[in-house]
Amino acid sequence: MAISTITIGFLVALATLLFSVPVAVTLAAAGLIGGLAMIGAPMVQSLGSVVWGVQNENSLTAIPLFILLGELLLRTGLADRMYGSLAAWVGRLPGGLMHTNIASCALFAATCGSSVATSATIGTVALPTMRERGYPMGPTLGSLAAGGTLGILIPPSVAMLVYGSITNNSVGKLFIAGVIPGILLSLLFMAWIMLDSLRRNGTARAEQPIPLAEKIRQSRHLLPPFAIFGVVMGSIYAGIATPTESAALGVLMALVLAAMAGSMSWKALNHAFRNTASLTGMIALIIAAAFILNVTLNALDVPQMLSRAVTSIGVTPTTFILLLIVFYVILGMFLEVLSMQVTTIPIVYPIAMALGIDPIWFGVFIVLMSEIALITPPVGMNLYVVQGVRTDGGPIGDVISGIWPYVIMLILFTLLMWFVPEIVTWLPEKMS
Amino acid sequence: MFIALSLIVVGETVARKLFSFSLQGADELGGYILAVGSGLAFTIAFVERAHIRIDLIQALLPATARALLDWVSVVSMAALALLLAYVGWLVVDETIEFRSNAPTPWATPLIYPQGIWYATLVIFALVALAAAVRATWMLLRGRSAQMVAEFGPKSAQDELAAELEDLNKR
Amino acid sequence: QVQKLRVAGNLLATGLILQHKEQPFFENLSKISGLNVEVDYKPMDALGIKDTEGLRTLRSGLFDIVSLRLAQVSRDEPFVLGLDLVGLNPDYETTRKVLAAYREPFDKRLQDRFKAKLLALWPFGPQVLFCKPEIKGLADLKGLKVRVYDQSLAKFIEQLGGIPVTLAFGETQQALQRGVVDCAITGASSANSAGWPEVTEYFMPIGFQAAIQAYAINLDTWNKMTPDQQQKLTAAFGKLEQDIFDYSKELFDDALRCNVGKEPCTTVKKYAMKEVPVSPADQALVRDAVGKVSFPAWAEVCEKSYKGCGDVWKAALGGIAGVK
Ligand code: NA
Ligand code: NA
What we know:
The complex is a heterotrimer of chains A (432), B (170) and C (324). With 432 residues, chain A is mainly alpha-helical. Chain A has one domain (2-431). Helix content of chain A is 78%, strand content 0%. Chain A contains 21 helices and no strands. In chain A, helix 18 packs antiparallel against helix 20 (397-419). The longest helix of chain A has 34 residues, at 266-299. Chain B is elongated. In chain B, helix 2 runs parallel beside helix 4 (111-141) and helix 3 (63-98) runs antiparallel to helix 4 (111-141). Chain B is 75% helix and 0% strand. Chain B has 170 residues and is mainly alpha-helical. Chain B is built from six helices and no strands. Chain B has one domain (1-153). Chain C has helices spanning 16-27, 29-33, 54-60, 70-73, 92-114, 151-160, 169-177, 188-193, 196-199, 219-224, 227-259, 280-305, 309-321; strands at residues 3-9, 37-43, 65-69, 116-123, 127-131, 145-148, 163-166, 183-187, 202-204, 212-218, 274-275. In chain C, helix 5 (92-114) runs antiparallel to helix 13 and helix 6 (151-160) packs across helix 12. In chain C, strand 6, helix 6 (151-160) and strand 7 (163-166) form a beta-alpha-beta unit. Chain C has a six-stranded mixed beta sheet, with helices on both faces. Chain C is an alpha/beta fold and 324 residues long. Chains A and B meet through helix 2, helix 3, helix 4, helix 7 and helix 13 of A and helix 1, helix 2, helix 3, helix 4 and helix 6 of B. The site of one sodium ion has 8 residues of chain A, from loops. Chain A: InterPro entries: DctM, TRAP_DctM.
């Protein structure tokens, strides 16, 4: 089979996706049609085993548990109280509450994987105050949308679980690998906010000083997220627990903490469970469909062929990564992130391995590309979420104008990571 | 169900760590719970319209075309659900024929977990099929507005409205 | 004309035997066998298919030739594991006899139930014991947590008073390091490659099982071949079987030396583990396990799907194992 056939197939599938056919259907159909054409009836016979294999895969048990953990923190109000506490600490920096946005998103990201919920919650709490105090709209909305993307980089991360399951890499190592880039990227975002505020001179804002005693009193709301993050990541890092086990520990802790804070109601629990089930169903169906496609792609030798083609024309790893950045930035404009991951990872991963790129590093790279996809128009989930929570009725152009610095920072940070890979690999290597 | 899963996993971790005692096969049980739980979740996500669609272009089209795409979406999802139920049956049928047992110390007869898993796929297929029939009826009657309302993509706006409503209640 | 063969190989992580024997064999099959074939060979996990599905994919015709991991595919056919019961294969000499004696009933069962024909059988080699705490013999396993990988081995460890823990191979090194298990059992060479000697101190080269693998071909594919072609293919696999058998023994002997820091050590990394000598009493304990534990437990499971399989086993292997 020629590369041109593959390209045509890929474009047809992309067009189908863009015409609103459910992602899972498109992937499964591509796998089924390709498989039937090249292999015939035995392909169908084997599909059941593939689907059972995915749904029965123990390592994927962590996905619903981590979603549930985030949902519990959100629905029981543990998350929104965090914002006020952080505002007390970082509001004094030039850029004021915008730092709080980033810090809250980062901390919330440390317990949850969903960027929609992160941006929506923090946005709702932050926007009314910030508008009242005259913060410029573009940068404010930008900081909220971009801050939300930290959710998939700072562990736990559903994106990393998906990458780990498709490529058979240790999820524990991927999680640990996300910690330093997550912190550095948060700091980079905050440094930019500070610079940008100073540059705007007149609008450089800082909040009123707050007495230390008040700061400390406020900080009690920071304990639950810190405690949960500490236990979840600590147990993985120390090697006491697998990601699934640590997720289960986190869920129980969240339940206990919420009960202690008196914020647990049947209604909140019910809501959390329903959302978890719904998200799990969506993700599991897409992964099952992606594995169906994967069997066909591999049976047809597609990844191997592409990887031979790429290595034979003498592409260096650096060129490859640069090309991938361009590829993902463009693709990410039009595709939703999970769809983007499951369609591209099976193809680009073997090439990256053939070029000798570290598999854990590459996982973090894919996550950064997904973060960009979350905030690039026209299809960028976080943009719409942030636009939706604002109450001033301004155009979505405000959000988009505020987002470019973050897209550029994400790209620059990816490049930095390529030339200094230790940012990613140092911590997981210390682990074993 | 997910709480039960957490309890089992935590119980096993703690037991293994503290009492050097092993609940043989918590992993195995976790895998079965995931298979059944995620199978049920297919239907829940379908009912809540949570299965991802990319409605970028659809949003720009006139109402009739939008309704047509919604119909395609529902019918194709039903086709996928039927396919899953069919291939699921092939697996279960072989499991019965071979009297397969899990290759683990428990040697669980596979038909128990796979039988329940298969039931979840059948539920998904039936629910999706019913929706497809309803959508086809709407299409034939030309009820575009109702189609978009019932089967249209759940936009970021809808999701957000739900989030905000929830936030205000807290 | 050219015949196309789709081949699902052993797992990627299989290491040296896959790299040096299996993969080159399939990639050069037309040259080796003199058949006009074009082989599309891939390790099974690279295709996204689980190793437990081996027999089903063989029967459905998704692949023409499949590398069967017997411990895993025993899910669908417990009979195949009859040649790897705990205690049945203490060393390579015995394994050679066991394979020869079991080949025919094994092949018959594959043909009757899975539309497949057996092409070759080979062992990864004796599955040996690695421990962190000091042990002097099998009696010291009492109260220790031991990583096992199947039911038969779990039963045996229980009988010794140990606590069997099932863990995937990939998780075991870390589990040893953090004390989730005290001891673990696997092949001498693969344990070395996975770094087990870094986290354990005592090494006991006693063979519990032999980790036997098989190659089988879909019967439709087989029947399409002329008798001459069939004979060429059989001859090629016969040679491969011999070849892997010798290489497996070479790797095992080398790993025995490497693990305890002896020379020559050429295939894996050199460590300085303490060797626990295998006493005649322990040897007898393992050998007797066939009749006492592993055969009865296995036969009970096997009889459910294959009436009379206990008698078939006894007819083939009863003499070698000393089970009446
Ligand atoms: Na996260
Ligand atoms: Na985008």
